Amino acid sequence: MRRTAQDNARPMLDAREAMERLNAEAAKLHISLRTQPNAPAQRPWFRDAGLQGNGEIANGRVGTGQLKALPHHWRWSQIGPYLDRVAEIARSADVSPIEFADRRQILLTNRGLGGRLQVANTIRCAVSIYNPGDVAPVHAHTPNASRTILSPNGG
After folding, report:
1. To 10 degrees, the CA torsion angle through 101, 104, 109, 114?
2. How high is the pLDDT of residue 9?
3. Which residues of 15-43 are buried (b: 16+ CB within 10 A; e: fewer)?
4. 0.85 exceeded by the pTM?
5. Taking the alpha carbons of 54, 75, 19, 117 in that order, is the dihedral positive or negative?
6. Which end of the chain is less enclosed by CB atoms within 10 A, N or C?
7. Taking Cα atoms as reference points, which of 56, 59, 62, 103 lies closest to residue 83?
8. In sequence order, which residues have a C-beta less than 8 Å from that of residue 150 and are 6 or more positions away?
9. Which residues sit opposite 107 in a β-bridge?
10. Nearest-angstrom CA–CA distance, 82 and 61
11. d(CA 26, CA 72)
12. pLDDT tens digits, residue range 95-134?
C-alpha cells in the first residue's frame, strides 16, 4: 500500500495500542482481535488443562474431560464494524502494511471454551479485512483450512 500526500498529512497511530484498546472493547461480543503478529501463539487456541469455561465438562468415551462449546450467534451487525475500525487503524498505523497484515483479524471465541480461540471443539474461525492495494504476506494453512471472500469485488 502506498501512502498518498493526504495519508502523510495524518499523524501515525500506535497500532498495537489502538488494537489493544479495541480488543478490550470487543471482548464482550466473544471476539478477539489479533493485536500483534502471530498473537495466537501466545494464547494457544487449544490446550487440555487450566481453562475455566462456562460450558459443561464432556463425558463419554471420546469427550471425557473436554470443555463443551455453548451455542452462540455472532451477529455481523455487531462484529462487522470492528473490522472497519481495524481497517482504519491499518491506514494510519505506525508499522508497514505488510507488518500490520497479520493483525487484521477478528477471531471468534466460544464462551464455553474458556477463552480458547475456537468456535467449537474442532473449529476455529477468523475474519480478516484488507484495504484496497494491501498485500498480505505469503503463509501456509493446514489442508483443512478454507477461505471465503466476503466482498463484492473479489479478493
Report:
1. 60
2. 57
3. bbebbeebbeebeebbbbbbbbeebeeee
4. no
5. positive
6. C
7. 103
8. 127
9. 32, 126
10. 40
11. 15
12. 777 777 767 888 899 988 887 888 888 888 888 888 887 7
